[in-house]
Design brief:
Blueprint lengths: L7 H10 L6 H7 L5 H9 L12 H18 L4 H6 L8 H19 L26 H29 L5 H14 L1 H27 L7 H8 L3 H12 L3 H23 L3 H10 L1
Length: 283
Amino acid sequence: MPLTPFHLGPGLMIGLLFLNFIDFPTFLIASVIVDIEPFIILFFNLDYPLHGFFHSFLGGTIVALLLAVVMSKIRRYLSPLMSIFKLEQDVSVKKILVASLSGIYIHILFDSPIYTDIQPFFPLNFNPFYRSTIFPGLLEMLICVYCFIGALIIYLFRLYQYKVKNQEKIQVKKELENLIQFVKKQKLISMIITYFIIGIIYVLTGFFHDLIMGKLIIFPLMISIPLVAPFWPLMVYADIINIGIMLQDVITLISFIFFTLFFLYCFRMVKPVNIITKEKVSL
């Protein structure tokens, strides 16, 4: 833990955040490539630590340099694929090299607190990052999961930016004003939608938390969302009173505060309809 696919969470999020500074496909590959080492050891049943030389900064650097050489040769063939996802980049050897090194180093830093066989500063035989806990890797896996969510949000925002940039008729300020006007005019509908969104956040957070913790999943999401989401305030209250505040309670309360601030902003910014009408008439 975190299993290899989970490393793509930080890879996607960091890669999208720093799209102008690092090569995105190189960074994604770098974030998982060193896990070829444990796969080979398991496949051939080798008498060697699962996380050996290539899970050290020295070994990782060698892999990163090799990956940078390969990607500098083939990167241009990936540009059409990047264009499909609206993630065009200016390709450079510098960006590829930075992506290779940083992606592998981040992978090592994520694994080092979990596994006892990792020696990040090889040939020195110690791991200062190792952390002995009841649930090894839980924190790292949660970070990876939320990085997936963060990456999705960033990607959707970038798609929106792309749309704004390539369609001159679309104005960000106007769309925001239209959204605020809708919230202002349709208060009840907006609040009901927001209420259920927060409930869904509560259910999803609890579901993934239980899944990661290895707890028994009694109801699938298709059942638990309509069953639990409408009653999320009672569920949060019951958690705090009977169990103590849990991860899903924290995320839900943060969501509630965010949407509350958003509504306050909308109600503050929108002018009354009669004032807007008078302004138009005067013009």
